[in-house]
Amino acid sequence: MNYIKLLNSAFSAFYFDDRLNPTHISLYMALFQEWNSSRFADEFFVNRRDLMRAAKIGSKSTYHRCVTDLDSWNYLTYFPSNNPYKGSKIKMSIIRTSDEPAMGHYDPKLEQLAEQYHPIRELVVNQHRPTSGQALVSTINNNKQVNNTKQPKDKQAVLDFFIEKNYDADEGKKFFDHYQTNNWKTSDGKPIRDWQALAKNWMDRTELFDQKNKPSKKQASHPDSYRDEDNLRTTKTKDYGQPL
């Protein structure tokens, strides 16, 4: 995948699409960065809370509206998750434009953006302009980082993470036991790539489940009255000796 071409094509599409507002573009860029982090995988899992924070979206309804709009406008394909402990899945669309820049075209703004996500590791002859072609990003990465977040070190690491995020420690135990039993694989048998993101999604679903099953204030304050209430509202002491 050519990072610069993909980003440049997206910007060109944004320019001519009057349906988009800043929130759509902000969410798309957050998803693009997740796509880039997954090395442009065909499909990848996302965490709603992290995306909302990256895109500066404060409302869940706004997030769902924007991601649904982007799906219907063919910027991506959205696979919502019905599993409370599994994140939704995204498939980014490859945007094609008829006016893609020539190979020798130089754009300093795009170069700065590329360096922000992929710092150049090798010596550049001329720091203001690439020597040939569109070699804005080095293809050699000698400082490859190892992903240490696929699986937690042990159960205590999970509990420490839950406590650090102000989550319920008991939920941390349930989370660890559940995925330890499944050998840290998703329900479709794929290895977990980031257990911390999965833990955040676990708590999001748990909080949503608790809210749906939380009793109302009236029921909580008078539980006996609801249990003993006679819905027919009839008197229980009757005198059958009286004539009708």
UniProtKB/TrEMBL annotation:
<protein>
    <submittedName>
        <fullName>Uncharacterized protein</fullName>
    </submittedName>
</protein>
<feature type="region of interest" description="Disordered">
    <location>
        <begin position="206"/>
        <end position="244"/>
    </location>
</feature>
<feature type="compositionally biased region" description="Basic and acidic residues">
    <location>
        <begin position="224"/>
        <end position="244"/>
    </location>
</feature>
